[in-house]
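Private note to self, pasted from the team thread so I don't lose it. C-alpha cells:
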C-alpha cells in the first residue's frame, strides 16, 4: 500500500517517523515547519547530556532535542536532521581528523 502524503500533510525528520496532519492541529504543523525551516541542517552543540533527550544550542538559542538512540556528552557537536513533536532531531556531527 502506497501512502500519498504531501509536504503540507506531514512534518518529517531525516529518517525518523512521520507526523500526520490528523494527529496535530494545523497551527502546530505550521509551528513545527517554521522551526524546521529555521534550524534544519544547522550545526550546534549539546548543552546538556543527551540520553537521548536533552538540550542543544543552535545559533545562540537553546532547544529541546533528542537523538534517535544513544548518548552524547555535553559540548558534543551536533547537526539537526529534523523535527518531531517539537523536539529537534539531532545526530552527532562527526568531524574528520586532520
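Design output:
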Amino acid at each position: 500500500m502506497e501512502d500519498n502524503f504531501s509536504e503540507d500533510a506531514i512534518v518529517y525528520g531525516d529518517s525518523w517517523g512521520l507526523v500526520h496532519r490528523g494527529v496535530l492541529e494545523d497551527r502546530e504543523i505550521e509551528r513545527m515547519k517554521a522551526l524546521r525551516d529555521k534550524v534544519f541542517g544547522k550545526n550546534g552543540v549539546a548543552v546538556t547530556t543527551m540520553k537521548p533527550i536533552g538540550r542543544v544550542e543552535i545559533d545562540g538559542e537553546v532547544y529541546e532535542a533528542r537523538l534517535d538512540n544513544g548518548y552524547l556528552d555535553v559540548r558534543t557537536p551536533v547537526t539537526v536532521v529534523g523535527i518531531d513533536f517539537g523536539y529537534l532531531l539531532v545526530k552527532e556531527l562527526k568531524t574528520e581528523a586532520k
